[in-house]
Amino acid sequence: MALRDDPLNALTTRDGRASVLPGGIAAWIPALFLGTLAAGAFLPLALFAGGSGPGELLPDPVVWRSLRFTLYQAVLSTALSLVAAVPVATALYEFQRFPGRSLVLRLFALPLALPQIVAVLAITGLYGERGVISLAVENAGLDFPPVYGLTGILIAHVFFNMPLAVRIVLGGMSSMPDEYDRLSHQLAMGPASRFRLVLWPFIRPALFSAGSLIFMLCVTSFTVVLTLGGGPRATTLEVAIYQALAFDFDPGRAVLLALLQVLVTAAAFAALTRAGGEISSGMTLGTLRSYPVRSSAALRTGAVLLIATGTLFVLLPFVIIIWRGLAAEIADLLGQQSVRDAIATSLLLGAGAAMLAVVLAYLLASSLASAAARRRFSGTQSASERLLGQTGSLILVVPPVVIAAGWFILIRQVASPYAAAHAMVVTVNAAMAVPFALRLLLPAAMTETERYGRLSRQLGLRGLARLRIVTWPLARRALLLAFAFSMALSLGDLGVIAIFGSQDVQTLPYLILQRMGSYRTQDAAGLALILSIIIAALMIVADRGSASQTARKTSRRTVGDRKPT
Amino acid sequence: MTGSSPQIVCDGLRFGYDPRNPDMHFDCVFPAGRITTLIGPSGSGKSTLLNLVAGFESPLEGRVLFGETDMTATPVSDRPVSMIFQENNLFAHLSVFDNVALGISSGLRLAPSQRATVEEALQSVELAGFGVRRPAELSGGERQRVALARVIVRSRPVLLLDEAFASLGPALRRDMLELLIRIQRQRAMTTVMVTHFPSDARFAASQAVFVSGGQVLATGSAETLLDPERTVPEIRAYLGGSGGA
């Protein structure tokens, strides 16, 4: 524990100096924090070094089976998501005047914010035994494969990632110069030529980054596989780590699995970086043309069908969450002490994690911004700046479950790990949110430094004064947005709490998992609705923030391009 | 269609980027087979007027006539128009040859004789042998010459240029204008050219249309309209110190 407390103390005591030395000590506080947290995953290795360690477990069939399945399901999930995303994205791009187009795009942003455990409940409700869709398929005289196992895992992963891929591909297409769009219409290109010659060159790189991102997300998918797979035939490395700790208590195997997981995610992350992808891409979309173009009725019908199918696939799980949730005894649930405790714990831990994530991400962002400002004239990034930029992404290479497992084994040597549940959930969930928060805060930090960095230094504005007078007014929206997003992410997480949770410390996702495990599906559905409502409230706050940011951007463009000056 | 270029009439066009506030109002004629320059302060609506003619914007009221034909509702691809933008006229991922060839076949399926046509067009803009290159390997002036080569193979009777040479240096701009004039004379295309260089306008155009605040303020011969001594006060104010530039 002492190890982890250090950087936290450093954070508070050195906060004042942080602004005095932009890119100096402050920069390394989040780096040190995240580094220490991640190191916890590897320290248990030392405990086993020399002894009856992971080496003896190398021939363990469980290890190799879960490695194989991890890669297999990730490749399949990625391929299916991309194959489904290209036609939907193309239809959405080409059919600008599709009514409700912006609603569809908003809907496609939602799965990422939906807790995986809630999505799993929805998917079993739709595609499971006597599910709405599986019943419909069976009534049509066809077989629907059982949802538990690979089928369910793939459906869940496509539900989460197809909309993400659509948004990334659309983002790629909107990076196309406006003139290309105009030219291709003026040159009277048919749909096939237009796709091949104009759209595809912009779709292809977006597919690379979307694909590597989705692969990364699926390789570290924990909740979906835990709940829909989990049998010997459908277990991933992370779920096997959890099982090794929770059921078999085999720390040696857990450590070996964790090591393999880190190797796999490191390779996936390297691919992601090479593909130019970003963990938080797909969060923004450009605006697009609208002028009369000739398209045949057949093409329009095809586009409508594609968009409708994609929309239904993404929308139905949300519908069933509300439907099944309302059928549950919500009032009765809210009367239960365990539920109220879980809500309180979730909110408390989520808020703590979000606060920590925002502080860490802003320190990182302002350090990166001032480093960028300093090299305005020298040009190239220094090695330390690159390293700093990468630390925010450390959590992607060393996933939460791996960190949690490492610390669980470590703490167990000296105390009861369950007593550390609060601290572990807050710190690991904060680390999880840092890459997203960083992405949201970086533009604000860049603006702050570029516009007022030198002025603030000249006026001697530092520490809290600079925070209050310069930073807060400028970055308030971004900070609130990052907080809401981080909290939503933490509220939905099951990875850390699955390992550290107990009768004494339970969050909402943990409680849902328990009720599912004891076949109280009604309760689980009600709890899922409660969790979704809390997160929806947070996302509305976040959406307001980002909406007004977009509005500002648009008005600036309008002024630049159109209004007489 | 070469040789029978239409005059273009903007008849009571009303337009606004916010449809509730149509703050632009255009009435003007671009004479057949001539080069007309469209000048005016930045943000005055020059590009908007050009986009209305090309079909990239739709007027809220009024008509766009090509000769006798009402083209107001005609889709972009069906108008007899070629347009050159300030940049991004070439698809960066296609070769110079393919970029020109798109003017003949939008699916890039060319007969041997059509391939020869592309080569000839490249030759006539002094870019023979550049066909295999990518746009990124060309200078800004060369890229605009490729765009002109595509105009040649497309042989549409109307040519619109939206500050097509604005990012080039003065000497290069003069070369490009000479090339433009040569191509225009051979085909007698009805040409409308937006520029913010009065000297370019005087050099290349016979007619001038002055736009300010979303309105056509004056039309006439380029020589008279752009002469600080003889013109209307608004244009004199616009020309200001740059009148002789």
Automatic annotation (TrEMBL), chain B:
Cited Pfam families: ABC_tran
Source organism, top-level taxon: Bacteria
Residue ranges occupied by any ABC transporter domain in the UniProt entry: 8-238
Keyword Protein transport part of the UniProt annotation: no
Cross-referenced Gene3D superfamilies: P-loop containing nucleotide triphosphate hydrolases
Keyword check for Cell inner membrane: yes
Assigned keywords, A-Z: ATP-binding, Cell inner membrane, Cell membrane, Membrane, Nucleotide-binding, Translocase, Transport
GO molecular function: ATP binding; ATP hydrolysis activity
Protein family membership: Belongs to the ABC transporter superfamily.
Protein name: ATP-binding cassette domain-containing protein
Source species of the chain: Oricola cellulosilytica
